[in-house]
Each structure stands twice: as C-alpha cells, then as structure tokens.
Amino acid sequence: MATRALWKGAISFGLVHIPVELYSAVQEHELDLTMLDRRDFSPVGYKRYNKHTGKEVGWDDIVKGYEYEDNEYVVLSDEDLKRANVDATQTIDIQAFVDAADVPLTYYEQPYYLAPSRGGAKVYALLRETLRKAGKIGIATVVMRTKQHLCALVCVDDKIVLNTLRYAAEIRSAEELKLPPATMKAAGISDKELQMALSLVEGMSEEWKPERYHDTYKDDVLALVKKKIKAGQTKTITAAEPESRAAKPSNVVDLVALLQDSLGKRPAKTSRASKPKTAAAKTTKRASGTTTRTRASAA
User: Fold this and answer.
1) Closest residue by Cα to residue 288 from 262, 261, 270, 268
2) pLDDT of amino acid 147
3) What is the model's pTM?
4) pLDDT digits (tens, 9 = 90+) for 81-98
5) What's 175's DSSP letter?
6) DSSP assigned state of 157
7) How many helices (H) and strands (E) does the chain have?
8) Residue 86 pLDDT
9) 295-299: long-range contacts at Cβ-Cβ below 8 A with a sequence spacing of 24 or more?
10) What DSSP designation does 211 have?
11) What is the 3-state secondary structure (H, E, C) of 88-150?
12) Whole-number pLDDT of residue 87
C-alpha cells in the first residue's frame, strides 16, 4: 500500500467528525506495452503543445480552465476548486445507512482504504463496529480530483473501505437486452435440470482463496515474448489468420446430457475421495461418456 495519502479530511455523520486519510486499495499489474511506429519500430510519444503556437508546454505552465464560450475560458486553480465548497472537499459526508444487499454490484466502482488520522482512532473504531453490528453500509459523498463522488463506507475486517459508487444516471438500462423469462417454467427449465445444475455447483464449491487466482493470460503473452526473442522474430508482425465460418448453431440443446458430462468431469474434493473402480466399471463409464459426448456434440 502506498505510504502517501491520496486525500485527507474527515468522515462526518450527525455531529461526529472522524479525521481520516484515504489510500488506494488496488494496484495494477497490466502488461506494459509500448506503442511503436511499424515503419522503423521506434517508440511513439505524446506531446503537450500550445494549439495556437504549436510549441510544447511544460507541466509548470499548465493550468485548468472552464470553456464558457467558444475559445473563452475561466481559469480555475486548485485553490479556486477548493474554495467553491470547502466542506465538500474536506469531508466524507454520510447521508444515510442502508443494507449492503440493497446496493447492486453494478454501482460499485473503485475501492480505497480509510485509516484514522491523529486522534481519530477511537471514533474510527466506533464507526467500524457500529457498521459491523448493524449490518449496514454508509452512503456518503466526497469530492476528489474536481469531481463529487457517491460512495459507500463498508466494514471489512478491521478496516473501513470507501468504495466509490456510480450515480443512477450512469447505469445503463437493461430493457433492450434479450434475456430469458424470469421464471423457470417460462424459461423452459425442468426440475431435473435445476437439480443437476445445483449438484454441479455443490461439487465445485470451496472456500474463497483469492491468492489462488492470477492473470494467466499475462504469463502466456510473456512466454510468447520469450519465444519470439529466442526465434529471432522480434521485428516480425504476425498476420491475422483468416476467420473460419462458424457452423450454424442449433436451437436444440440436450441440457441434461451436458450437465451429466460436466458432473462426470468435475474435480473431486479431497475430503470426498472416491474408491478405486473396477476394470468393468471403468469400461462402462467410458462407454457412457462416449454416448454423452456424442449427444452433446450433436447439440
């Protein structure tokens, strides 16, 4: 976690003020790819330039402005943006407390850690434990980087996490999506299909262990990089393969056969080790699996 706070202020609800500091809760591990000119493979850069003179502009000479008419600007310094509403820029103002389940996942955007500032440890802990006992999250507003964010204060273990939220106007309507009907009967799902799907989910259920997962695609790309270096193909541009025409999909799907095949291939849990099968049983299972796969392929 970064040692430098991104924002300093206070959480406010009622007459209570909790001095806090805001820290980023995530770090990116994306592939660092550089844009190159395909003619000589030189890096492509960006320049900040004056659109009137065409000359490059350094960071020290750049200020912000709001265009109120064509090519007419009001200059706004960081101090101006702060003075517009001092309380809003220095306070995480809790508006209400709601059940976490009432806020759909589509609203959540970016998580940050909140840590108490000097003298705020006890009140911070009080709010954290209150959120935990009540089973609520705090819905608040805060101004960061010239924008007022809606956010949720969530108790996570011994921390209060501030998660910025999207406004309702930013969430697209799903009415235009062609979704299956909301009921099993209307969607054509049988009880047998549901029970088999539930069995598959049960067989694949385990404790959440986030350290088990990582970006395997990034590993594959880096392996390809090493392969191209070894083959002396560092300047070779691989052409795209012609797309093969996909077979026309069939609307008839033997869902039970697919579920049976999935149940047969699900990973066995260590606590439920199966007994060794006899040769006859293995032969029967292979024959059954072949029939199931044939029906699935036909679907």
Assistant:
1) 261
2) 83
3) 0.68
4) 777 766 667 889 999 999
5) T
6) T
7) 8, 9
8) 62
9) 295/254, 295/257, 296/254, 296/257, 296/258, 296/261, 298/254, 299/250, 299/252, 299/253, 299/254, 299/257, 299/258
10) G
11) HHHEEEEEEEEEHHHCCHHHEEEEEEEEECCCCHHHHHHHHHHHHHHCEEEEEEEEECCEEEE
12) 64
| CA 85/CA 94 separation, integer angstroms | 16
Q: What single-letter DSSP state applies at residue 210?
A: G
Structure tokens at 42: 């030189």
**Apex 45 CA angle, 40 and 47, nearest 5:** 140
Q: Which two tokens stand for residue 90?
A: 């220095």
> What is the signed CA dihedral for 248, 249, 254, 259, rounded to 10 degrees?
130
Q: Residue 85 contacts by C-beta under 8 Å, 6 or more apart in sequence? A: 143
Q: Which of 79, 97, 98, 74 shows the shortest CA–CA distance to 89? A: 79
Strand partners, 137: 98
Q: Which of 163, 2, 166 minimizes the C-alpha distance to 92?
A: 163
Rounded to 5 degrees, what are φ and ψ at 84? -55, -35
| DSSP line for 25-59 | --------PPPB-TTT-PBP----B-TTT--B--G
Tens of pLDDT, residue by residue over 152-177, are 999 999 999 999 999 999 999 888 88
